[in-house]
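Appendix B. Chain record.
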Amino acid sequence: MSFDKFNDECGVFGIFGNANAAAHTALGLHALQHRGQEAAGVVSCDHGQFFAHRALGLVGDNFNSADVISRLKGTAAIGHNRYSTAGGTMLRNVQPFFADLSLGGFSLAHNGNLTNALTLRKELINRGALFHSTSDTEVIVHLVALSPGVTIEDRIIDALKQVEGAYSLVMLTPHALIGVRDPLGVRPLVLGKVADAKGKEAYVLASESCALDIIGGSYVRDIDHGEMVVINENGVTSLHPFPTPMRRFCIFEYVYFARPDSMVEHKNVYAVRKRIGAELARENGVKADLVVPVPDSGVPAAIGYAEQSKIPFELGIIRNHYVGRTFIEPSDTVRNLGVKLKHNANTAVLSGKRVILVDDSIVRGTTSKKIVTMVREAGAKEVHMRIASPPTTHSCYYGVDTPERSQLLAANHSVAEMAKLIGVDSLAFLSIDGLYRAVGEAKRNNDIPQYCDACFSGEYPIALTDKDSGIGGKQSDLFAEMA
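Structure tokens predicted for this chain:
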């Protein structure tokens, strides 16, 4: 797996009141595959009885048969795509999780990271809780199980009042689908509807609206920060049980994580990325012959840059979309050639040209260096790199797998030093105010930022209780060393 990009750790999906609940959930997970490629799972419910299928690997490799789908009975289901951390993927960590509680079956899928999970886990173990996974998500299951609340909704609220961190949750009970976003709304969650052949509508929860499109559904709205929605036979009930300070949605969703065709927080991601490119051109113009995206994540920003700068847009780098895990032993030679497995220079376009390479971010810089070398070897006369986000100087602790700060290139080098290391004639990043302008703000409010931008600013809006353990930023493998 590549550690030169940030990796969002998962996508969630849920549906209530549709005869094809499991099939729709599998399709929704297909659309959310970009949010996690290590494992996938679906749990369904049929008149109080729960069914599950969880597996390592891609959705299409594990939910591609009628036999699997037919065993996931019921008119309600939830699903989860997982991206593992450095601790590795294990089947016992694959969500959704399930437990038999005193109130009946309960299943849970989580996108995010609990920053006090280690502390809570130790307390729960001291109270006699038996953990079966190494995931922070299982902490929520135990808190719900031990809560004195009368209803499942009461128990969920009680449990979530004890956790810190970022979370978008979908939960399945014998009678309801429940969705919750944390009080700051760091991770996304949308509400949609889909009609069956007879016109009966079912409600859907998903990390992004692209998961609604694939099943022929429609976007209704985003779940609000700190909101809980309960979906049952009576429709949708909205609760606001948590204090909701100013929302702090993850601004990096617009830069990289979300699919370009998604609506996230009422904004089309593709349109935002084009505006990001235009802002980048206004701030960091340079004379050149071509604007070339680093595919695929750099494409929308490169289009915006080209339109604003009036410099032609060209596909000077071609991506191979059929690359999976390498089947060759990863010797040093193969590692060095690895970039060519995914990208190849279009020599006929690049030769003799002054090229602006547009990418979404620089994390470690290793991939950027290889791509620049490849473009120069294709005959480019000059290579200028423009990055469609501010320098990434801090690790994320809210559900994104990131290197330690010591391994982030921008945390340890000036822009000039980075340019020399990567091998470009010039390097420039979008300013943080430019990023905020692209998402519709006049500028960043430095007193109360409108978004979570901790990876750029180092200002973490949620307490990092377990940070000093060295585990706080790693969802899903709190005790990976024990596995």
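Further analysis of this model is presented in Appendix C.
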